Amino acid sequence: MVKLTMYTGGLFLGFGLALAGATKPEIVLSFLRLEDMGLILVIGVALLVTLMVYQIVPRLLSKPPFGESFDGHDGFPVTSRTIVGAILFGIGWGISGICPATSLAAVGTGNWPLFYAIAGMFIGTLIYGTIRSKQPPTHK
Q: Residue 123: left (phi > 0), alpha (psi -120 to 50), or beta?
């Protein structure tokens, strides 16, 4: 049941991104250039859903529908690697107009050339994982 709920949520996300135009790189780039602010509604809805899931729902329910307890979400430490990763993500998003979620949704809408971008994301992740796995582990 948990997997079905996750897949259903993913489908709704994909349909929502496609409906909003977030799967079209030219619309995203127009938004990033502050020429078309239509995607601000998508961001606002995402923030509202996140607020509900992390702040409101745990106060209304004693336990989650598909789990034993709500896991605390204390965030994560902001490190130099986090900042560099965010900058690289932003540069890639600004150049291409896509991010992982929107690229997968775009392929679902028939934008097949984005397979190259998805392949690039996987290759970049593989390279990072290979390099990172050779470094000694860091402890908190």
A: alpha
- Plot region of 41 (φ>0 → left; ψ -120 to 50 → alpha; else → beta): alpha
SS3 category, 116: helix
Name the DSSP class of 95. H
Q: What is the pLDDT of residue 72?
A: 67
CA proximity to 101, closest of 35, 4, 20: 20
Rounded to whole angstroms, how far apart are CA atoms 15 and 106? 10
pLDDT recorded at residue 127? 92
Token match 């908190």: residue? 140
Angular region, 97: left φ>0, alpha ψ -120 to 50, beta rest = left
User: Measured between alpha carbons, how far apart are the two ends of the chain, in Å?
Assistant: 35
Name the one residue in this structure whose structure tokens are 């679902």: 108
Token output for 60: 């209304």
Mean pLDDT of the chain: 85
pTM of the model: 0.67
Half-sphere exposure of 74 (CA within 13 A, CB side): 1
